[in-house]
From TrEMBL:
Membrane topology: Multi-pass membrane protein
The keyword Cell inner membrane belongs to this UniProt entry's keyword annotation: yes
Subcellular location as annotated: Cell inner membrane
Protein name as annotated: Membrane protein
Presence of the UniProt keyword Transmembrane in the record: yes
One Pfam match: Sulf_transp
Organism field: Salinicoccus roseus
Length: 422
């Protein structure tokens, strides 16, 4: 018996994928004042970081700018990729994920095996335990990103593009991450879990063998998406508006495969710069905890802020590498959207406001329990050869499937063909 997911009229939330408005959007002139403002703010932040922090921080800010620029131009999605796969069987974006991961493991393998950072320090990937905390966290994150309208990276680049409701998602993402940080010791110490498992170091395969196994897994997943597409006669994704020639770099959509390669390279550069892969949500827990501390809550006593994390709580947020990357992503997406003439604030309704509150809370809490989000756990975990990254993806897909039935309750569409969220 075939399970049918709910089907309602498509209401694209980003005009860039609306076939009615696609051509007119392609002709929008660049918003030069906004571009200039974004570049000026980026330059000032770069100078401030160079003057007050180690050179690692301004380097990471540049990487963040490039990440945001790439995410926006390709509308590279994790939320929408999972939703299209589960709702209509379209696996184009999922295959882009597999390409991204294939390039990432190819770059990560020698770096993790032999490399040091540009500053001479040791590197380490994201390899985390598999247990109840991961299972619960990834599942509710999958629900949350479908209600909140974007994943962790999608929230940041959508804010950069002016999508107003995502500011609500971000606020409650931070709240959820802070509460998750407070509760994390219970989930990790009281709930059952297994030791971290690395395909490279826990199995005897080594990084070479783990690389081969990873490529086989990615190939099988890509093949499965093709089979599902044919079986379900899945519709194709609509093209985005774009310019031609060199102008396409700043005024037009990028192919998903190009963005997949760029994101993998930038993640590897992040690993080589700070000694860890790209991450997003640990900064949200830091921001929320600092705000809580300002209002008199003794967050320093939380188990989450003991040990290695204690220094971050005492330092400026600009000393936090993840915070700097996040600021860079927002600014990069802002410059990209303004260069394409696409920056504008969007409407907030009661439905998407409510969904953003719930979705943000679920994502923030889930990300702390699952040792990361779609970037830190899924992208960074799999690129680091950690089994928890694969399990995160499976559970987030399960959460996505459930969320397909929840979205209509908030007036959110369940696509028949495609959408452009995250």
């Amino acid at each position: 018996m075939t399970t049918r997911v709910p089907s309602v009229r498509v209401q694209p939330v980003n005009e860039a994928r609306d076939p009615v408005k696609r051509d007119s959007l392609a002709l929008n002139p660049p918003q030069k004042a906004l571009v200039g403002g974004g570049i000026a703010v980026s330059f000032i932040l770069f100078l401030y970081l160079a003057a007050t922090q180690s050179m690692m921080q301004p380097m990471l800010m540049i990487i963040g700018l490039l990440l945001g620029f790439t995410l926006f131009h390709a509308r590279f999605g994790f939320t929408s990729a999972f939703r299209r796969m589960m709702s209509v069987g379209n696996g184009q974006a999922m295959r882009a994920h597999m390409l991204m991961l294939a390039v990432a493991v190819t770059l990560f393998a020698p770096i993790l095996a032999f490399g040091t950072t540009f500053f001479g320090e040791a590197v380490s990937g994201y390899v985390s335990p598999v247990g109840v905390s991961l299972i619960v966290g990834a599942f509710i994150f999958g629900i949350g990103m479908q209600l909140g309208g974007g994943c962790a990276s999608g929230t940041l680049y959508a804010i950069g593009g002016g999508r107003t409701v995502m500011f609500i998602t971000l606020i409650f993402f931070i709240v959820g991450a802070t509460v998750g940080a407070y509760h994390l010791p219970f989930w990790t110490e009281e709930m059952p879990s297994f030791e971290p498992v690395s395909l490279a170091t826990s199995t005897g395969l080594g990084y070479g063998g783990a690389w081969i196994v990873s490529l086989i897994i990615f190939g099988l997943i890509a093949l499965a998406t093709i089979i599902i597409e044919k079986k379900r006669n899945a519709p194709k994704m609509a093209p985005l508006p774009t310019s031609r020639g060199w102008k396409r770099l700043v005024r037009g959509s990028w192919p998903l495969f190009a963005a997949a390669i760029a994101l993998a390279v930038l993640n590897a550069l992040t690993l080589m710069t700070r000694g860890q892969p790209w991450g997003i949500t640990s900064a949200f827990a830091l921001w929320g905890s600092k705000v809580a501390g300002f209002f008199g809550i003794d967050v320093a006593e939380w188990g989450y802020w003991q040990g290695a994390n204690a220094a971050a709580l005492e330092s400026s947020i600009f000393a936090d590498t993840t915070t700097v990357l996040n600021f860079g992503v927002i600014l990069g997406a802002f410059i990209a959207s303004a260069a394409g003439g696409l920056f504008k604030f969007t409407k907030i309704t009661l439905g998407n406001f409510s969904a953003s509150v719930i979705g943000g809370l679920l994502m923030g809490y889930g990300a702390r329990l699952a040792f990361g989000c779609n970037i830190g756990a899924y992208f960074g975990g799999i690129a680091s050869f950690s089994m928890h990254g694969y399990i995160w993806g499976i559970l987030a897909l399960a959460g996505t499937f459930l969320a397909l039935y929840l979205r209509p309750l908030f007036g959110l569409s369940v696509p028949k063909s495609n959408d452009s969220v995250c």
